[in-house]
Amino acid sequence: MSNFTVKPIGKVRNNEDGTFIEVSKHYIPALQALEGFSNINIFWWFSDFDDDQSRSTLQTAQPYKGAPDVIGVFATRSPLRPNPIALTTVDVIHIDYEKGVIQIAFIDANDNTPVLDMKPYTPSFDRVETPGVPAWCSHWPKSTEESAFFAWDEVFTF
Fold first, then answer.
1. CA-to-CA distance for 41 and 127, rounded, in angstroms?
2. CA of 47: how far to CAs of 9, 23, 83, in Å?
3. Which residues pair with 101 in a beta bridge?
4. Which of 56, 79, 107, 134 could pair with 49 in a Cys bridge, judged by C-beta atoms 3.0 to 4.6 Å apart?
5. In whole angstroms, what is the distance from residue 115 CA to residue 44 CA?
6. What parts of the chain have a pLDDT lower than 50?
7. What domains sit in the chain, N to C, each tagged with a CATH number?
8. Would the pTM count as exceeding 0.70?
């Protein structure tokens, strides 16, 4: 097995002005031609869960109501996983190309979370017309837009 070197390209900023991806100065040229994409996929590091215990957790007790009693971490979006990599599709509000700052609507990452990479959301590669999900989560929203108004606190068991 090989080890991999991953270098953050920026960080998440959450403050009173909103939610942002701040791209490191070196990577600002990589933003060229991103305008026009309404959404981007952000790959980020669950930095608060990068420890031996979190990385060795392979199963968890029922995290969602109605789910099996024990569920593997690959069937969750839990931060506890062998490699604490996360993916969130975000809505782009504004891009400041000079400063390397992308204002986004929301991301489920904490302030100062390292951003590893980003890719434009393109329906031809990212959209699945009729995705299949287990019965226990079939009542969840069918889009990120619907998720904003969904009572997630009624789904999670923690």
1. 12
2. 14, 17, 10
3. 22, 96
4. 79
5. 4
6. none
7. 10-123+130-154 (2.40.30.70)
8. yes
